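Blinded run. Sample ID left blank on purpose so nobody reads anything into the name before looking at the predicted structure. Input follows.
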Amino acid sequence: MIKKKYVKSRQVVKVTFELQASELPETIDVEAVHLVGDFNEWDVKATPMGYSAKKKAYSVTLELLPEQEYAFRYLVNGLIWCNDWDADAYVASGFGEDNCLVVTPAG
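Blinded prediction complete.
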């Protein structure tokens, strides 16, 4: 799930990325989930996601520029790439898979 909220005072969009644990392969023992994308130059360690036992989900909130498109994916245990099925769109990654797109609204 992706939630977006424009913050007028800072002219940014707070975007919360949430990955339900139920969307991950059952055969793996999850040690870490990272959000990787254009906003962090695809650095696989830059944006760790926290786990909420109450929501049974991994999430992180970023402040992004309005009226932009950002490609992203989730990386589990540094090995398994996952997409967000609630993304705004999908684009070819150039590596044989699709990247997710999040589009931030105007202010």
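Unblinding after everyone has recorded impressions. The radius of gyration is 14 Å.
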